[in-house]
Specification:
The chain is α+β, with helices and mostly antiparallel strands. 30% of the residues lie in helices and 23% in strands. The protein contains seven helices and nine strands. The protein has helices at 55-64, 83-90, 108-116, 131-140, 170-179, 187-198, 202-208, and strands at 39-40, 46-53, 77-79, 100-107, 118-120, 143-151, 157-167, 180-185, 213-214. Strands 3-7-6-5 form a four-stranded mixed sheet. The longest helix is centred in the C-terminal third of the chain and has 12 residues, at 187-198. The protein is globular, with a radius of gyration of 17 Å. The N and C termini lie far apart (40 Å). 38% of the residues are buried.
Length: 223
């Protein structure tokens, strides 16, 4: 992989959020998590989500602050507010075609729009009157919500779930053209955290993690 620009310091790769709650890997027993909650690095106007791509897509995206023409708008794209879930999915940026890890800062307005126009990726009888109604909604909705077990530093499944948000059609186009505020290459951060975990230094690894706080999204399906 070639990179023409100098990488920023690891800790500066992500903007810290004010007054964070402890990260999942550093949570005290007296503060249990609800089964489903959106936890994310966010400000008053933006939220940071993560994706991983092959360098041909990821590097130009980080360089230019927008996705290149090679990025397929017609395909569903999945965004993850949880850094550690992204690390589980891309293997710390070591899996093929996922070598470049991106932190994509998008507007909260756009993220909330996607949640309002989303459908659960699986049938839930408490959310839909019947299976056929869910299938109709799934075909119509430009976004999909999926709740997967959150992951720890060693990719172990935790007893609560983290959001994945799939964007297609109108949502995908808005994500690329309207909602994106910045795109940063955080592969060096992923690799450094991985090195610390492998070296048996979890406390130092936790200190580098993005400071994810509960995100107020009452309209997310499944919450």
């Amino acid at each position: 992989m070639q990179e023409s620009r100098q990488n920023p310091p690891v800790r500066a790769a992500l903007r810290p959020a004010p007054n964070p709650v402890p990260h999942t890997a550093d949570r005290t027993p007296d503060a249990p998590e609800p089964l489903r909650r959106i936890r994310a690095l966010h400000t008053d106007s933006t939220i940071t989500v993560y994706q991983a791509y092959r360098p041909a897509i990821g590097l130009p995206a980080a360089r230019d602050g927008r996705f290149p023409a090679l990025w397929k708008r017609g395909r569903m794209t999945w965004i993850k507010p949880s850094f550690l879930w992204m690390m589980y999915r891309c293997g710390w940026g070591l899996k093929q075609d996922q070598e470049t890890v991106l932190a994509v800062e998008i507007t909260r307005e756009g993220f909330d729009w996607a949640l309002r126009h989303s459908c659960l990726s699986h049938y839930d009888r408490t959310a839909h009157p019947d299976h056929a109604a869910w299938k109709r909604r799934l075909r119509e909705a430009p976004a999909r919500v999926q709740w997967d077990p959150e992951r720890g530093l060693r990719h172990e499944a935790l007893p609560y779930r983290s959001l994945q948000l799939g964007l297609a059609g109108e949502a995908s186009e808005r994500y690329a053209d309207e909602w994106t505020v910045s795109i940063r290459d955080v592969t060096p951060l992923a690799r450094r955290v991985h090195e610390l975990v492998r070296a048996g230094r979890p406390e130092e690894a936790v200190g580098l993690l993005p400071e994810e706080r509960p995100y107020p999204a009452a309209e997310a399906p499944g919450l």
